[in-house]
């Protein structure tokens, strides 16, 4: 595991001890969000012939610090929806990304798109917690799990009716994925040792997944060319945070990017024919 993941996971497990004392596993049953009707994250990603966009609500990150100082999560999510995003990812990790579970909850009350809880999930408690706060899907990062833990988390997601986006960083992670249990695979283009981004590396790992898997390219994406390449290579979806968060109007940016992707795709096909 990379240093940064180790650091984050350690902090997460410390915080979890406190959170469990405040709110027990069973308490979540009475949360408003628990009753929300789920929207299929998987279908939303797979349902367009375009590369579908998962737009991320992200205030800060460990590598970039504060990305968007005037941060209004609900407004950003509404704009994403209007701009044509297929799903929304909401960072809920507080110490490293300045996220909050209450952002997820507030967004779920206003937006009709499926919502992904983006956090460092190591315990089924966090999956039930995600549901209680209005999530439709959870991110599960292979590299922060050990042995049977991955399987246990995937079962918990199923139990609570949430889709799981299973994230790999490299081939070692990929080799641990049991595709009998995984429908949506993400590969993070960012190398966590040096924070460098390589979309091609991500694509070549994604392409090893079984045919029916929904594929998501994650991180460092910002141009129509990037997305046209994903489309050409059969990748269904792109997870984009920082680029949108740095634009004045994140919704307009989604719309523009979708248009630029079409143009770039035509160019790409012309060039290769
Ligand atoms: O902001 P970017 O480079 O567009 O990346 C978004 C997303 O992929 C990134 O935030 C991310 C991918 N996997 C994660 C796991 C935890 C926290 C964050 C992430």
What are the defining features of this structure?
single chain, alpha/beta, TIM Barrel, eight-stranded parallel beta barrel, two-stranded antiparallel sheet, 12 helices, binds indole-3-glycerol phosphate
Notes on the protein architecture:
The N and C termini lie far apart (42 Å). It contains 12 helices and 10 strands. The chain has a single domain (3-272), classed as TIM Barrel (Alpha-Beta Barrel). The protein is an alpha/beta fold and 273 residues long. The strands form 2 sheets. Strands 1-4-5-6-7-8-9-10 form an 8-stranded parallel barrel, surrounded by 6 helices. Bound molecules: indole-3-glycerol phosphate. The site of indole-3-glycerol phosphate has 14 residues, from strand 10 and helix 11. Residues 56, 58, 118, 167, 188, 218-221, 239-243 line the site of indole-3-glycerol phosphate. Pathway: Amino-acid biosynthesis; L-tryptophan biosynthesis; L-tryptophan from chorismate: step 4/5. InterPro entries: Aldolase_TIM, Indole-3-glycerol_P_synth, Indole-3-glycerol_P_synth_dom, Indole-3-GlycerolPSynthase_CS, RibuloseP-bd_barrel. Residues 5-257 form the Indole-3-glycerol phosphate synthase domain. Pfam families: IGPS.
Task: Please describe the topology of this protein.
Layout lengths: L2 H20 L18 H6 L5 E6 L2 E2 L3 E2 L6 H11 L3 E5 L2 H4 L3 H10 L4 E4 L5 H9 L4 E5 L7 H11 L3 E6 L2 H5 L8 E5 L10 H8 L7 E5 L5 H9 L4 E4 L1 H4 L4 H23 L1
Parallel strand pairs: 1-4, 1-10, 4-5, 5-6, 6-7, 7-8, 8-9, 9-10
Antiparallel strand pairs: 2-3
Helix pairs in contact: 3-5, 3-12, 10-12
The protein binds indole-3-glycerol phosphate.
InterPro entries: Aldolase_TIM, Indole-3-glycerol_P_synth, Indole-3-glycerol_P_synth_dom, Indole-3-GlycerolPSynthase_CS, RibuloseP-bd_barrel
Family: Belongs to the TrpC family.
Catalytic activity: 1-(2-carboxyphenylamino)-1-deoxy-D-ribulose 5-phosphate + H(+) = (1S,2R)-1-C-(indol-3-yl)glycerol 3-phosphate + CO2 + H2O
């Amino acid at each position: 595991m990379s240093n940064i993941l180790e650091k984050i996971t350690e902090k997460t497990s410390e915080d979890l001890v406190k959170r469990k004392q405040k709110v027990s596993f069973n308490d979540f049953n009475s949360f408003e969000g628990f009753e929300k009707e789920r929207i299929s994250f998987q279908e939303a990603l797979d349902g367009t012939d375009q590369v579908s966009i998962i737009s991320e609500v992200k205030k800060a990150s460990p590598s970039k610090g504060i990305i968007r100082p005037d941060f209004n999560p609900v407004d950003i999510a509404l704009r994403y929806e209007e701009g044509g995003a297929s799903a929304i990812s909401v960072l809920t990790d507080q110490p490293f990304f300045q996220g909050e579970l209450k952002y997820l909850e507030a967004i779920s009350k206003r937006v009709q798109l499926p919502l992904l809880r983006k956090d460092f999930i190591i315990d089924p408690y966090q999956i039930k917690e995600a549901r209680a706060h209005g999530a439709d899907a959870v991110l599960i990062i292979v590299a922060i799990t050990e042995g049977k833990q991955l399987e246990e988390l995937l079962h918990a997601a199923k139990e609570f009716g949430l889709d799981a986006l299973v994230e790999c960083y490299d081939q070692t992670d990929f080799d641990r994925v049991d595709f009998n249990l995984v429908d949506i695979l993400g590969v993070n283009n960012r190398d966590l040792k040096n924070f460098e981004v390589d979309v091609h590396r991500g694509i070549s790992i994604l392409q090893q997944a079984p045919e029916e898997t929904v594929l998501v390219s994650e991180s460092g994406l910002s141009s129509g060319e990037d997305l046209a390449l994903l489309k050409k290579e059969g990748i269904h979806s792109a997870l984009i945070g920082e680029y949108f968060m740095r634009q004045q109007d994140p919704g307009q940016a989604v719309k523009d990017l979708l248009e630029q992707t079409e143009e770039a795709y035509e160019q790409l096909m012309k060039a290769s024919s």
